[in-house]
Amino acid sequence: MITQFKDPGSPKVRNMKHVYNIIRKHGPVTKSSIIEKTAQKQTTCARIIDDLLQEGLIIESGIGISSGGRKPVMYAINTNQLFSIGIDISRTFTKVLLLDLHLNVIDEASFQMNKESTPKKTIDFIQSTIVQMLNSRNIEQDQLIGIGIGAVEPLDREKGIIVDPVNFPSDHWNNVKVVEVLQKKYSTKIILDSGINTAVLAEHKLGLNEEIGNLSYIIAGVGLRIGVMNDHRLLKSDADRFGKLGSGHMVINTNGKKCICGDYGCFHTYSTILYLKANIIHQLKRGHPSILTEGLEDPDDITFEDICTALEAGDDLCVTTVRDFGFFTGIALSNMITMLHSDYLVLSGPMFNRLDLFFETAVTTASNRISKLYPGYDVKFKKGHLGENAAAIGAGSMVLDYYLE
C-alpha cells in the first residue's frame, strides 16, 4: 500500500518509494532506465520491481525498443488500484473529483453555491457524492488514499477549519470544521489548504512544464485569489495571515473606488465580479444608456451573465467599463511581475475566462509596462489550462505529495 511510503522506517521501504517515484514520473520506463536513474545495483532494483509488482503498485506496460538482444519490459504505475478525492470549495461552486494516481479525472460533480448552500448542505453533498463515485466503480474505501480540500481562506490548516471567508452566498460559514466532519466518515488522510495554493500546484504539475519554477496564479471571480510559486516552491506561509480580506489589496489607483478593506483603488476593486457589477449599476442609475436596461425595471437585478451578453453585443457602457477594469488590472499584474519575477502568469476565474476584452486589455497593459522596464524579459500569460478543475485536482495532488514527496 502506498501509505507505507510516508516516513518509511526501513531501507527496503525507502528504496521501494524511490523506485516507485521514478516509475510514476517517467513511466512507462525500462528496468535499465530505472537502474540508471536510481544508481542501484541490478539485483536490488530487480527485487524492488518484483515487490512493487506483487503489491499491485506497478504493472508491466508493454515492450520497449531493443538496443540489441531481447526487447525490454516497460513498467508503469497501476492507476486502477488506488485513488484520491479532490475538492474545491469556492464562492461560486463546490466541486468533487475522483482522481487516479496520474491525477486524471475519473468522475466529477459540482454544486452551485447560493444562499441555501450552508456548510451542512455543502458537506452533505460532498459526502453523498464520494459515496456515489466509489460505489459506481466498485472502489472500496481502503483504495481511497486520501481526500484533499482546497477552500477560500482564511483557514486553520492544522485544525482543518474554514475560518471566516467573506462574500460567501450563504451565512454560517464561520469556523467550519470540515476535516473533522469528513474524518468521522472516512478513515483516510484528509488535508485542507487554500484553493489558490492547490490550483498553483495543479497548473505547475499538469498545465505547464514542471521545469517552470516561477509562476503566479490569479483567480478573479466573486473575490480575488493570488498564488505564487518561486523556484519551484509554493509560497504559502502568509496565506492565512491575510485574514478574511484576502490578498488583492495592492493599491493601483488612489482615486479609485473604496474597497472592503477601507482603502481606495485596490487590485480587488478592478478585478472582481462584485465591483464590476457595482460600477455598471452605478452608471446605469446615473442615466448612462445601455442595452442592459431593456426590459429591466431595477438595475440592481443585473447579473454577471447579463454583462457578459451585453459585452458580446458591443454595448458601449460594458465595453468601456470592462476595458477600464482590464487596464488597471494590467497595472497590478506588471507590479506583481516586477516584484516576483514570474516567468508565467496564469489568469483564471470568470473575469478572465468569460470577458475576453478584460483578459486582452490586462495582458496588453502588463506586457507594455514590463517591456519598457525590462526589454527582452519574456513573460508568458495564459488562461488556466485546467479550467475550473484546477483547485480540485491540486487538492487531490496534495494527498499524493503527502505520501510520495
From TrEMBL:
Question: GO MF annotations for this entry?
Answer: kinase activity
Known Pfam families for this protein? ROK
Keyword set includes Kinase = yes
InterPro entries this protein is in? ATPase_NBD, ROK, WH-like_DNA-bd_sf, WH_DNA-bd_sf
Query: Alphabetically, which GO biological process terms does the record hold?
Result: D-xylose metabolic process
Regarding protein family, the annotation reads: Belongs to the ROK (NagC/XylR) family.
Tell me, in a sentence or two, what this protein's role is: Transcriptional repressor of xylose-utilizing enzymes.
Q: What is this protein called?
A: NBD/HSP70 family sugar kinase
The organism is Oceanobacillus polygoni
